[in-house]
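Box 3.1. Reading complex inputs
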Amino acid sequence: MSTTTAGVIFVLSLAAALAAVHRPFGDYLYRVVSGTRHLKIERGLYRLVGVNPATEQSWGVYARAVLAFSAVSVLFLYAFLRLQHHLWLSLGLDPVVTHEAWNTAVSFVTNTNWQWYSGESTLGHLVQMSGLAVQNFVSAAVGIAVAVALVRGFARSRTGELGNFWVDLTRITVRVLLPISVLGAVVLMLGGVVQNLSAGTEITTLTGGSQTITGGPVASQEVIKELGTNGGGFYNVNSAHPFENPTTWTNWLEIFLLLVIPFSLPRVFGRMVGQVRQGYAIVAVMAILALASITLTNVFELSGHGTVPQAVGAAMEGKEARFDVSNSATFAAATTLTSTGAVNSFHDSYTSLGGMMPMVNMMFGEVAPGGVGAGLYGLLVLALITVFVAGLMVGRTPEYVGKKIGAREIQFASLYFLVTPVLVLIGTAAAFATGNNSTALNVGPHGLSEVLYAFTSASNNNGSAFAGITVSTPWWNTALGLCMLLGRFLPIIFVLALAGSLARQHPVPASEGTLPTHRPLFVGMVVGVTVILVALTFLPALALGPLAEGL
Amino acid sequence: MRLPNWLAQHLAALRALLVFTVLLGLAYPLALVAVGRVPGLADKSAGSLITADGTTVGSALIGQSFTDADGNPVPRYFQSRPSAAGDGYDPTSTAASNLGPESVVDTVAIDPEESTQSLLTQVCARSAAIGQLDGVDGRRPYCTADGVGAVLAVFRSDGLTGPITRVVSVNQTAPATPFLASYEGVAVELAQPGQDYLAAGGLVTPIRGDAPAEPAVPADAVTASGSGLDPHISPAYARIQVDRVARERGAEPAEVSRLVAAHTSGRALGFLGAPTVDVLRLNLALDREFPAG
């Protein structure tokens, strides 16, 4: 079998598996978030937390609960990192200093998992498993909860109530993330992912050198890192590390895990608004963008343009032999189409255009299929912008799933869309204006790409990097921390405000003049609007980086 | 007493975080550590350690450097891929090179300690060295015969246009001979340490040369992996090493090839990943069957 054929079958097998679970898993998620019964363990958790699961929250209360939980999480994680040297399993490592601890605390609470550090030489096992990995669960649950609250805004009428954040958080964690993680971790362990508390085993190699075989509770963190679209590696080299991703089939499984929830959530949307075809339209937009991006990334990487790939004969720098070029390119596309940011190969050494694709994926706002929850609410915002544009063209009031999209809704949608471009472009400009771009490893257009990638990744809560750049300085840690924080919570506030506004409305019955939003025409329009908006926003910046280098 | 709303909200948040930390941060991972102790999983969750003659010699999943104390290849062993992890295959400082596809100009400083090699020169140097070690053609496109990147800085009278005024081979310094005597009629100079020809306005011009499009030394042999711990090489890279290893061990090449085949895996299920050779276990098998004299 040729390399290309194998790579194509790899992608198709993932698509088939995702298509197969879309309905049953989406239906399960739907029952989790809309059921009225509480499990015994959940009732116990509500008692411990001190909340009444029967109460419902307005959008403001829901948003304040999200922000309170996240603020407490940042402070807790910050303290954890600063005090790690006093704790069990710290492996004799030093405390993490202020700007570093701020960056990492924000990074994991915002589902970004941007890492200025090398896990194996900076963090003890306890901080990783009881600090970072806990956020891998709950930050993912927060994203799904916010998406569900927005969908309730569409599904409900004449009410201020959007659900209960504590109930959503608890159910998603206990009924979805935890059971899949337990199962997935055991499967990964069968593949060779380590799960121990060892500080390392010193061995003598065949030629008499010494090597330390590192340990750690990796499998338990690896699975939720993918499933929750977090992406923070236990070790510096993330899913390229043989202890995080030992085999070609664990590689397949990890890509599947990071795509499965985002690709199933549109089903939840369809079920909740009572029109499953609306969910199919949304998942179709995601699938078209994702397949196009995965294909292009593969084409660019396999064709191997550029001086060094031509000299080598393949774009193999920074890629593992077991994954080769194609399975690495597919992982790179999947990890940036979602907000995961885990890597099994190093994007900085990709061909110029192959390395541009992860950036473009993130610039799309990570909607195809996007981060857990964040992808769905991002795409629903784009759908609103599309019906608005369509409404302008035909001179009718735009509607979407029975709700009028008025000035207020479009203001929230526009504000939502503007957050990340503003952060990315101002951040990149600020790095150059202050000379902080000098920490880039590569020179010329590729150096600009490293800076642009960093701000794109942080502001979109991805966490992958053109990793040659050194970002452990106070300026970088502070700036990227701010981007992650604003890039996560401003959109969440706008989405919840939008949800509140939609929930208050009377439903509008569909009429002759209503644009059907489940037909291929609408799917094509959303794809078009997304591509055009992103191209207009980012083309100039891309022209100075990867396009200048690759064309 | 009723707490103000905002305070109650934050107290609930703190309690929720602590509860989840116990559940997800302690119970969950520690239970999995316990599960990892059961037979069938125990070896894997501990790191797939390999023992030979009673001592642990490595992990089946983690590659090793088969080099001597000075970093030179030990010829009786199959060699691993280049590694950017520490001094090579160091699991305590895993890394990739992160050098880009157009990293083609070396920094030649006056103090050699401060000089850095471009990715292109690293590739060319590795290819030349492997070619010499294994007796195959080490030439590659965009590489000079002496194993550096074949790259010119071309100066034109009006910057980007106009007649060429000066041409420098940026990665070659004395006593080398420029890989091209002249470029479009202008004599090619060697680079002087400490000069930045790009900042001075030279246009970077890599020269393809006449090396075969499919070099004898395969791609994985001249590139660093993502992890720096890659336990595998391609079957093609193993193939060019067979004669040398056989010679060093006084074995028949066919016998060594048989061992290579025994340690080669095809694509799992026919389509996952790429065919690979497990270097550490292959070398262990060689030590067992053909101990070097």
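In summary: Chain A touches chain B through 123 residues (CB under 8 Å).
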